[in-house]
């Protein structure tokens, strides 16, 4: 594949296909969008948007962006300024134009997160971009719209969102009624907003369940169909005889306040299901199950058997090393090692612990118990699921280490 091929004809099929993307209808048909300019291309790269090709001005020499695109095996075509202007449909020159595939952003998100924003016919490109950027800043991924043709890949939306449009999941509904029905079916409470709502947002009583925040069109506001389905309609108080807030600003205020309120309303559920707690409980249960199996055939527990396995791998270990490896110290560490010494499974020489012959022999027998217990614990998991489960754990370990590593 020639990554820096030249295209000189406006009739080249790659140019013709890219020109289609200057219009909303073309983007909709192709499920692709134009990535106009260096900054937008950088945002798309950072968000892992599949970039199918990039057209760049033939006069550009070596350029760091081209080097990165080349390294990512993205075909880049040198073209004239006339071709670039035709593709972008502008009178001015944009020296880099990419084609990004956005089908994944539109794939149905299952399940939705606990807080979603439903755009009820919000139209202004700047407002759309601001809302997407604000939503991502508050950890929201799922943006829903009541407009089946909502097009958020127009350059002005991409710019106003600072590229966050590439980092959302967009679900478009055929009508406001369809959106509300689906949200209720999925257990959401619908919180609509209006400058004339009867309830102040800050004192609204939320139910302890996921929120769909609805914000309305710049002129008409939220439509009647949504109001009639809403569980709550809330207002952000204003003074100074202002009629309403800009919808982007109102969304920011509502997301911030309602997210906080939702956390408080759902606190007990959240605490019960934090990742750390779930993994901790699972880890303890696994250990207890293994202990139960081992105790039925020996006087040793899972920590001792796991230590014997580690010692077999490392050959020798200092007591200090054992403490660190098993996260045990003082009396607890002695209680782990003493029975193994007394039974002659390990011995100590010049401050280093080793497995004895008896220890090696017993370890072989313990191993089959560990293996069969693990098999029981993973009962009902297919071979693929077992592999996936191990992969998930490995990725979780790597992420934990990344979180613990101080940032440069
Ligand atoms: C410019 S306003 C629409 C004004 C429209 N004439 C109306 O009365 O609803 C656009 C959207 O921003 C949100 N909004 C604006 N001001 C608000 C306020 N004070 N309280 C709650 N939501 C507000 C609502 O979602 C509203 O539909």
Automatic annotation (TrEMBL):
<keyword id="KW-0489">Methyltransferase</keyword>
<dbReference type="InterPro" id="IPR029028">
    <property type="entry name" value="Alpha/beta_knot_MTases"/>
</dbReference>
<comment type="similarity">
    <text>Belongs to the class IV-like SAM-binding methyltransferase superfamily. RNA methyltransferase TrmH family.</text>
</comment>
<dbReference type="InterPro" id="IPR053888">
    <property type="entry name" value="MRM3-like_sub_bind"/>
</dbReference>
<dbReference type="InterPro" id="IPR051259">
    <property type="entry name" value="rRNA_Methyltransferase"/>
</dbReference>
<dbReference type="GO" id="GO:0006396">
    <property type="term" value="P:RNA processing"/>
</dbReference>
<dbReference type="InterPro" id="IPR036388">
    <property type="entry name" value="WH-like_DNA-bd_sf"/>
</dbReference>
<dbReference type="Pfam" id="PF22435">
    <property type="entry name" value="MRM3-like_sub_bind"/>
</dbReference>
<dbReference type="GO" id="GO:0032259">
    <property type="term" value="P:methylation"/>
</dbReference>
<feature type="domain" description="MRM3-like substrate binding">
    <location>
        <begin position="14"/>
        <end position="90"/>
    </location>
</feature>
<dbReference type="InterPro" id="IPR001537">
    <property type="entry name" value="SpoU_MeTrfase"/>
</dbReference>
<keyword id="KW-0808">Transferase</keyword>
<dbReference type="GO" id="GO:0008173">
    <property type="term" value="F:RNA methyltransferase activity"/>
</dbReference>
<dbReference type="InterPro" id="IPR036390">
    <property type="entry name" value="WH_DNA-bd_sf"/>
</dbReference>
<dbReference type="InterPro" id="IPR029026">
    <property type="entry name" value="tRNA_m1G_MTases_N"/>
</dbReference>
<dbReference type="InterPro" id="IPR029064">
    <property type="entry name" value="Ribosomal_eL30-like_sf"/>
</dbReference>
<protein>
    <submittedName>
        <fullName>Uncharacterized protein</fullName>
    </submittedName>
</protein>
<dbReference type="Pfam" id="PF00588">
    <property type="entry name" value="SpoU_methylase"/>
</dbReference>
<dbReference type="GO" id="GO:0003723">
    <property type="term" value="F:RNA binding"/>
</dbReference>
<feature type="domain" description="tRNA/rRNA methyltransferase SpoU type">
    <location>
        <begin position="115"/>
        <end position="256"/>
    </location>
</feature>
